[in-house]
TrEMBL record:
NCBIfam families: trpS
Family, as annotated: Belongs to the class-I aminoacyl-tRNA synthetase family.
Family matches, as Gene3D superfamilies: HUPs, Tyrosyl-Transfer RNA Synthetase
GO CC entries: cytoplasm
Protein name: Tryptophan--tRNA ligase
EC nos: 6.1.1.2
Source species taxonomy: Bacteria, Candidatus Falkowiibacteriota
The keyword Oxidoreductase is assigned to this record: no
Length: 330
């Protein structure tokens, strides 16, 4: 099982995915995998319990793995594991890293700052949330990963990882590669109702991978677009969905053509929505069929995870031996 870990990324199991999750997070991973990389993907269940109940998180783990497999993650190329199978190693490494940072530094991390913005004081934030960037550093460093593709919102956390890796290496020797952060292009997929980004928190404006075709159609029919001749963020976002959601070249051309006509003052928003409905329905049908296939063999997910978990454990144990030798001496 020799494997050189280059790329690693994590995803929190917190419930149903939307097409925005697919476009923003899963598709970039598929592109890496299909370009010959062998990424590590882990289900960040310890991170999920910062704000979700453990019992629920546990149920979401298999759901998430089923979704990712149905979306095209290939376990022959991408190693999938569950973070908590190495929770002992991760928590120990977190403690070793935490002694190299200060409370003040952790208070400056944006997730905590967001909490303050939302009316809470930093002091009243859940202490695991406060610890989040250290835990992330441990996730990455324990696998000695070199490159971390993440969305824009995670970039600040990874700065903490780089700083902690550098401090550790400086003090105890070159144990950790300094991970490179690769920010995946952020797509502005907005809520169909025009209330911010598409997300679970506004279900009427989000298309879930588990939506029935009728539900999806209804949501698109009610979606905000734009008045005569204008381009709005809502329309741009719908156009992005139409063009990125595994549509054919012919469909992409048709979409561009409709937009040209719209800008010329033609009444084509109905036609545009029909095209969007066709593309979204086909995507959902393919996904849902594939997901049934994935779940048809009840042991399949277990086998996939067993393989990934074995790799993650072995690699984490190796790292901990190196780390403790470096820190405590022989
Ligand atoms: N914090 C990430 C998120 O909320 C998930 C995550 C946890 C992660 N540990 C990581 C991502 C390490 C990349 C690397 O999406």
């Amino acid at each position: 099982m020799e494997k050189n870990v280059n790329i690693l990324t994590g995803v929190r199991p917190t419930g149903s995915l939307t097409i925005a999750n697919y476009l923003g997070a899963v598709k970039p991973l598929l592109e890496l995998q299909n370009s010959g990389e062998e990424p590590l993907l882990f289900v960040a269940d310890l991170h999920a319990i910062t704000d979700y109940e453990p019992e629920q998180v546990k149920q979401y783990i298999r759901e998430l793995v089923a979704d990712y497999l149905a979306l095209g993650v290939d376990p022959e190329k991408t190693t999938i594991y569950v973070q908590s199978v190495i929770k002992g190693q991760i928590m120990t490494l977190s403690a070793y890293l935490a002694r190299l940072t200060t409370v003040a530094e952790l208070l400056r991390v944006p997730t905590i700052k967001d909490k303050i913005k939302h009316g809470q004081s930093a002091e009243s934030a859940n202490a695991l949330l406060f610890f989040y960037p250290v835990l992330m550093a441990a996730d990455i460093l324990i696998q000695r990963a070199k490159s971390i593709p993440v969305g824009e919102d995670q970039v600040a956390h990874l700065e903490t990882t780089r700083v902690l890796a550098e401090r550790f290496n400086k003090k105890y020797g070159e144990i950790f590669p300094i991970p490179k952060v690769t920010q995946v292009k952020s797509l502005r997929i907005l809520s169909l109702k025009g209330d911010g980004k598409m997300s679970k928190s506004s279900p009427e404006g989000a298309i879930f991978l588990t939506d029935t075709l009728e539900e999806a159609e209804k949501k698109i029919k009610r979606a905000q677009t734009a008045g005569d001749k204008e381009m709005t963020p809502s329309l741009e976002s719908l156009l992005l969905i139409v063009k990125m959601l595994d549509s054919t070249e012919e469909e992409q051309k048709r979409a561009d053509d409709i937009i040209v006509r719209h800008k010329n003052g033609e009444q084509v928003m109905g036609e545009f929505k029909d095209l969007a409905i066709e593309i979204v329905k086909r995507f959902l049908t393919r996904f849902q069929t594939k997901r049934k296939e994935v779940l048809a063999d009840p042991t399949y997910i277990d086998k996939v995870l067993e393989q990934g978990n074995d790799f993650a454990r072995k690699n984490a144990d190796e790292t901990m031996v190196m780390v403790e030798k470096a820190m405590y001496g022989n």
